[in-house]
Amino acid sequence: MTTTQARSTRRRDRAVVAVTAVATPVVLWALITYAFGFDITVPESFGSPTRTPLEPVPVIATAIAAVLAGWAFLALLERFAGRRALTIWTTVAVVVFLGTLPYMPGFTVAERLLLGLVHLSLALVLILGLRRTARARH
Question: What is the pTM of this model?
Answer without folding.
Answer: 0.87
